[in-house]
Amino acid sequence: MPSPNPITETLLKRDSAVLLAWYDRAARPLPWRRPPGQAGRANPYHVWLSEIMLQQTTVAAVKPYFTAFLARWPSVVALAAAEDADVMAAWAGLGYYARARNLLACARAVGAMGGIFPQAEADLRKLPGIGPYTAAAIAAIAFDIPATVVDGNVERVVARRFAVQTPLPAAKPDLFAHAASLTPQYRPGDYAQAMMDLGATICTPRSPKCEICPWAHCCKARAQGIEASLPAKTPKAPRPRWLGHAYAAFNAQGEVLLETRPPKGLLGGMLALPCSDWGEAPAPNPPLVAQWHILNTPVRHVFTHFELHLTVHWAMTDATPGRGRFTPIPAATDLPSVMRKALAAARAAAGL
């Protein structure tokens, strides 16, 4: 993208100021956010924790987890000292469990630095689980550094503001350049959050509310009547389907057999029903000898890159398991979503 001329730069600065004025009136109240106009800076621990939780997850889903984490681990040093199993259990249901492992690794890295997050994007990117977007968001929101923060919401806003018709992901470099041209030196943290709010509440994927948008006057896509079609996206290949077996063994004490999954891989370190491998044709792998009943309908769960169909087996048994341990069923609320589905199906079939 060519460098803007002085007149264009002036107009872009004006547009940024207009957006900040809108944000001052319309900012979403979020538990990790410092309200606009409030003196001081946002807490870096709060910003980092919320940004990790918000990856591939909605604000509504994150709010209770964020509040619970802060109540239990009020600082990054406290989180660094937490037991792995406790953090993984507290994360259960939020999905994308590699984030929880990286969360602990990052907390411990920051704890080793005295509990102080670095401010520079380059230094933030050296920490576990922090990529370009998260580093820019922390630098801008926590430290008021004029970093260019581009997530999915911002890509959509920028694609429409400049009528970028190149499909994603090929358009990403142009969208970043356009976003950088708008990023102000003044209040960059508030500006980054204003862009996120604009995309989340007004410049939405479907039926954008152009009539109340603070950038309606300068949106090139709206001027051309193509706002609803942007950003264009290259069609995704269909998700592959993986198969697997899950085993729900119940004993006379009303407990269910659970095991901790290996630390690496999908659902790594999480408490789960014993399972086979997942793949195209996995072999059954029951955790103990029992009279297993098989549910007619597999449990289906969609991950980012594949769709899982779990054949659920259940049994009533007092046999000693070859792996895992029997656990009171109420504790199974700490299971990841796919395991909650499998356990609920097995309990219904067993009449428990």
Short description:
The chain is an alpha+beta fold. It has helices at 6-26, 44-54, 59-72, 76-80, 84-91, 98-112, 121-124, 132-143, 152-161, 172-182, 188-201, 220-224, 337-350; strands spanning 241-250, 255-260, 271-272, 293-294, 299-302, 307-316, 325-328. It has two domains: 6-229, Hypothetical protein, domain 2 (Endonuclease III, domain 1); 241-350, Nucleoside Triphosphate Pyrophosphohydrolase, CATH 3.90.79.
Could you explain the architecture of this structure?
The chain is an alpha+beta fold. The chain folds into two domains: 6-229, Endonuclease III, domain 1 (Orthogonal Bundle), CATH 1.10.340.30; 241-350, Nucleoside Triphosphate Pyrophosphohydrolase, CATH 3.90.79. Helices cover 41% and strands 11% of the residues. Strands 1, 4, 5 and 6 form a four-stranded mixed beta sheet that branches. The longest helix has 21 residues, at 6-26.
Percent range of helical residues: 40-55%
CATH architecture of the largest domain: Orthogonal Bundle
Q: Low-confidence runs (pLDDT<50, min 5 residues)? A: none
Report the biggest beta sheet as strand number plus sense, adding barrel if it closes: 4 strands, mixed
CATH topology grouping of the largest domain: Endonuclease III, domain 1
List the defining traits of the structure above.
three-stranded antiparallel sheet; four-stranded mixed sheet; alpha+beta; Endonuclease III, domain 1; 352 residues; Nucleoside Triphosphate Pyrophosphohydrolase; 2 domains
